[in-house]
Amino acid sequence: MNELVKAKIDLLTSKPGVYLMKNADGTIIYVGKAKSLIKRVKQYFTRPQEGKVLRMVREINDFDTIETTSEKEALLLELNLIRKYYPKFNILLKDGKSYPYIALKRKKDPFLKIAYHDKDRNFKYFGPYPNSKAVYSTIDLLNKLFPLRKCQTLHKEPCLYYYLGNCLGPCINKISDQEYNNLTSQITSFLNGDVSKIRTEVNKKMAICSENLEFEKALEYKNILDGIDEIKKKQSIMASDHIDRDVIAFSSREGYFSLCIMTYRNGILLGKNLFILELFDDFEEELIDAVFQYYASHSKPKEIIVSNKEIALSLTYLLESKVISPIRGSKKDMLLIALENAKKGLDEHFLTARLEDDSLSLLEELGNLLKIKTPFHIELFDNSHLQGSYPIGAMVVFINGNKTPSMYRKFNIRESMGDDDLKSMEEVISRRYSRLILENKEMPDLIIVDGGQNQVNVALEVIDNLGLNIPVAGLYKNNHHHTSGLLYDNKMYPIDPKSRLFLMLVRMQDEVHRYAISIHRNKRSKGLTSSFLDSIKGLGKKRLEALLKTFPTKEDLEKATLDELEVIVPKNIAIEIKNVLEHK
User: Fold this and answer.
1) Which residues of the chain have pLDDT under 50?
2) Radius of gyration (Cα) for the chain, nearest Å?
3) 351, 386, 404: which is the final residue of a domain?
4) Collapsing DSSP states into helix, strand and coil, what is residue 44?
């Protein structure tokens, strides 16, 4: 403990707040929260430490604190600061996605859709569903079973679904409230787990079609029955009280802990989330932090079940939700199921190569190899084009060895330089770091380009002209076009393809490839269609987006029938699209 740290500790108060640990470069390496700042910060330097905490304490050269009015306020601030600075000793839950709901419009010609929030009072929501694939298959099945409207915007003429008998046609017919109420109540019952009535009706229709020798139609009903049975199978674990709840269990082992969150909605088990996290601090504190992080990006159910009474009390206060710790009965049984999943997840984790857990040591190895400071913040670049057309640049970011999609960037490149990879790289690197300079934002510790020495030289020239000092490396390939190592400072650094460092670099390379290809496909599909559709009157931005979502390429549009186009756009526009396509 240096004199600066010692003096600052003496000035700390017993108030709650957040502390930010810094290294000799002034980089924030850890953000933590405390009920009492003086007790929490002081213990790092007065208690014996080991492992990851010891490594952090050895790096601490300074720290800052921010006092708050409550522990909850400190927890919120801690989470925001971690997401802002990505300190290398902090761990964020990898999954920040929102889970989809099935949304049923309540009035005015109801319809079904997939939604990613449950805030619109005009809809009734079912879910959220951790398994996105299950949502799409379920809503597809519901649209076959129930003739609600399929268009979110009503047209003046009926679409293909109406002629197929899959829609009541509210665009041309007045549908009674009673008929709609009957349909929506059946859908609600179905999504709440009662599929018996629907299954019986479909079975009868299948039998009638078989008797009438309408075998193709009978097969359609058979497929629908299979879909119903599949959903029923997934809904087999149910609670009789039909309450929305999450059941949380955890297990720890050798410095790691698993967090299993099982999602029940309306009493039906919809799926689970499993997180494996490295223990850095007090187990109970780490667990509460992880659960709080989870609910910062996921909706809170009516009830949360945990196995520990003290943790239940803390979470009740922090989440402002009902959190209980049952000791017997069906809820205890749910906890046991979750605990079994938590233990199994941790066991599987230890049976596999824990590449991500070793990220910090691998980054240190990479820094030592290239003789640079440990590259905790790496930015990788790749370009993509189709014979010079639709050129794009892609950049992905890895912080502490983990991909950080919120920081990814895409670059549209001028067509005139699309087939010149070096010019494209020059433009992308220049635009990226000129902007960071202008916005006074943090620079990366290492830039990696996917290419040979020429690509590296171009990037270095741009970095030098901007007055920056950022190491630039390239991933080079052998005669078989397989990645073999790194180019840096005009030297080649072969890396053992069986090593963990090699696997980490390939994982980064795969990610920038994936991102570049996805951007290019999107731009190409839009370019192949929107260019000749722009002149069609009445085909505005929203309609064009909806059209390209269903028919992403020119070939898809050419294959589409007029009826299929009319599902998305009015008849006159659909006719004009077909006319334009015929003369192209």
Assistant:
1) 353, 355, 386-388, 416, 418, 528-529
2) 29
3) 351
4) helix
- Residue 180 maps to a domain: yes
Do residue 330 and residue 370 come from a single domain?
Answer: no
Strand order in the sheet with 62-67: 28-34, 17-22, 62-67
Q: Does 169 lie in the same domain as 262?
A: no
Report in angstroms the alpha-carbon separations of 375 from 398, 446, 470, 548: 10, 6, 10, 41
Tens digit of each residue's pLDDT (9 = 90 or more) over 497-513 = 778 888 888 888 888 88
Q: Which pLDDT value is given to residue 497?
A: 78
Amino acid symbol at 340:
E
Question: Which pLDDT score, from 0 to 100, does residue 481 have?
Answer: 64
Q: Using N-to-C axis directions, what is the helix angle for 421-438 and 453-465, rounded to 10°?
A: 30
**Domain endpoint, select from 183, 199, 234:** 234
Distance CA 529, CA 545 (A): 11
CA torsion through residues 118, 123, 124, 130, sign: negative
Contacts of 15 (CB under 8 A, 6+ apart): 36, 37, 67, 68
Given the DSSP bridges, would you call strands 472-477 and 446-449 parallel, antiparallel or unpaired? Answer: parallel
Positive or negative: CA dihedral 78, 84, 88, 91: positive
Per-residue confidence (pLDDT) for residue 99, from 0 to 100: 72
Residue 101 exposed, middle or buried by CB count within 10 Å (0-12, 13-18, 19+): buried
- Domain with 559, as residue range(s), is 534-582
Tell me the one-letter amino acid at 408. Y
**Residue 209 near residue 221 (C-beta atoms within 8 A):** yes
The type of residue at 158 is P
Do 386 and 516 belong together in one domain? yes
| C-beta of residue 370 within 8 angstroms of C-beta of residue 486 | yes
Same domain membership, residue 216 and residue 181? yes
How many domains does one find in the chain? 5
Contact criterion met (CB below 8 Å) for 449 and 471: no
- Are residues 263 and 364 located together in one domain of the fold? no
With respect to residue 17, please indicate whether it lies within any of the assigned structural domains: yes
Encoded tokens for 503: 């696997």
pTM (2 decimals)? 0.58
Within this chain, do residues 407 and 515 fall inside the same structural domain, yes or no? yes
In this structure, the answer to whether residues 538 and 451 fall within a common structural domain is no
Beta strands in 35-173 (DSSP E): 62-67, 101-105, 112-115, 123-126
317 is a domain residue? yes
Tokens of 53: 């905490």
Residues 511 and 538 occupy one common structural domain: no
Backbone phi, psi, residue 130, to 5°: -60, -25
471 preceded by a cis bond (ω within 30 of 0): no
